[in-house]
C-alpha cells in the first residue's frame, strides 16, 4: 500500500499566491501580479520568485506555451488546508481538537452564526457515528 505524501509546508505569502492560482488556472505570472491588485508591495519579480518556489515545492505545475509559463495547482486547496490544519493543531494544541475549539469559544471569537454552524456539525457527526454502530 502506497503512503500519500502530504503537501509541503508553505509560507503565508505563498498561500496568497496559491489562493489566486486555485481560483483561476491556468494562469501566467503577470496575471497573478495583476490579481494581487496592489494589496502587496511586491514587484513582478517577487511574484515570479514565489511561483518558481511553489513549482519547486511541487505545489504548482508549469506548462510552457509560446515561451510563457502557465501555472496550475498540483495539489488541491482542500488537501493543503487539511494538512496545514493538522500541522497547526499538532504544533499549537498538541493534537487536541477539543482544546482548540474550547480556546475559540472561550475567547469569544465565534459569533452566533458560527456557533450555530458548529452545533449543526457536531449534531451531524453524532448522527453519522450512530448510523455506523
In short:
By secondary structure, the chain is mostly helical. The protein is 61% helix and 9% strand.
Explain what this protein looks like in three dimensions.
The chain has 133 residues and is mainly alpha-helical. The chain folds into two domains: 62 residues, Orthogonal Bundle (Arc Repressor Mutant, subunit A); 38 residues. A two-stranded antiparallel sheet has the order 1-2. A hairpin with a 2-residue loop joins strand 1 and strand 2.
Determine the CATH superfamily of the largest domain.
Winged helix-like DNA-binding domain superfamily/Winged helix DNA-binding domain
* Tally of distinct domains: 2
Please bin the fraction of helical residues. Answer: 55-70%
Average pLDDT score = 91
Overall spatial form? elongated
Amino acid at each position: 500500500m502506497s503512503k500519500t505524501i502530504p503537501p509541503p509546508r508553505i509560507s503565508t505569502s505563498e498561500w496568497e499566491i496559491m489562493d489566486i492560482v486555485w481560483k483561476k488556472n491556468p494562469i501566467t505570472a503577470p496575471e497573478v501580479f495583476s490579481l494581487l491588485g496592489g494589496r502587496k508591495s511586491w514587484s513582478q519579480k517577487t511574484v515570479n520568485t514565489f511561483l518558481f518556489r511553489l513549482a519547486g515545492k511541487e505545489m504548482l505545475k508549469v506548462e510552457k506555451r509560446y515561451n510563457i509559463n502557465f501555472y496550475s495547482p498540483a495539489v488541491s486547496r482542500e488537501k493543503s488546508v487539511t494538512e496545514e490544519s493538522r500541522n497547526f493543531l499538532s504544533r499549537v494544541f498538541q493534537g487536541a481538537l477539543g482544546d482548540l475549539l474550547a480556546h475559540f469559544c472561550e475567547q469569544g471569537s465565534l459569533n452566533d452564526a458560527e456557533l450555530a454552524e458548529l452545533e449543526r456539525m457536531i449534531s451531524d457527526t453524532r448522527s453519522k457515528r450512530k448510523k455506523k454502530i
